[in-house]
Amino acid sequence: MTTLSAPPVAVPSLPASAAIDAIIRLALAEDVGRGDITTEATVSPDTTARAEILQKAPGVVCGLPVVEAVFGALDRRVRVTPDVPEGSFDASLRVVARIEGSAAAILTGERTALNFLQRLSGVATTSRRAAQLVAGTQATVIDTRKTTPGLRVLEKYAVRVGGASNHRAGLDDGFLIKENHIRAAGGITPAVQAARRRAAPGRVVEVEVTTLRELDEALAAGATLILLDNFSTEQMRAAVAQARGRARLEASGGIGLDNLADVAQTGVDYVSLGALTHSAGVLDFSLEVIA
After folding, report:
1. Which end of the chain is less congested by CB atoms within 10 angstroms, N or C?
2. Does the domain at residues 165-272 carry the CATH identifier 3.20.20.70?
3. Do residues 136 and 265 make contact, with C-beta atoms less than 8 angstroms apart?
4. Chain segment 17-76, per-residue pLDDT in tens
5. What is the model's pTM?
């Protein structure tokens, strides 16, 4: 894990959006319900406190702006001061943020804030590892739509913090003609041609293929990005030679961190990895009141 210390790209800022505000409100409503009865019973509303958030496992820290937003939603007077930059890596126990303000707000928001932090840090850590595995090749690691329902905007932010890149944000964000579209449309050629007629100038039309013969058909139909579905590395190399730069190629299916470097060496342009989000673990953090 210590090889993850240097971020491969500049760390992006978390965009302010109504969607993120809504996610935080929903998460707090889920946890708080009709009220934090334990805190209400034991802590005076006038009590203030100081607390620290501790990173307890090696990994990339991601989600500190979300932590700040969680406590701000409970009490705008709570101040969260990061001790480390968003996107930084460390392998040892360390304080990543300090919190001051209403003790009640700190205690009520603790679990929600940590849940976001541990999940997003897990995604960022997996993405950092993936990005470094393809370093030195022309391949870019991209995510998929295999995200936690409701958390896509945050998980895709965490992918970028880790140093990988985003594929489509949603179905309205790009054409991706997959196997079932092809069957329903009557084939690769009619599906690609229909999408090209609908696409605005410069909009990418991507289509999935499962064989080198289908790759030829997709190229002839004018696809600008072609997804190689479950190709072996030998087939990927053949596809790169066959395409000859006429379209960009994305490898997908059956790819994990164990074989990612081999896939990147085939010459494909992109490697999509659902594991960045659907199989990412969580990073362990705790919050401790210190005064």
Report:
1. C
2. yes
3. no
4. 899 999 999 999 999 999 999 999 999 999 999 999 999 999 999 999 999 999 999 999
5. 0.93
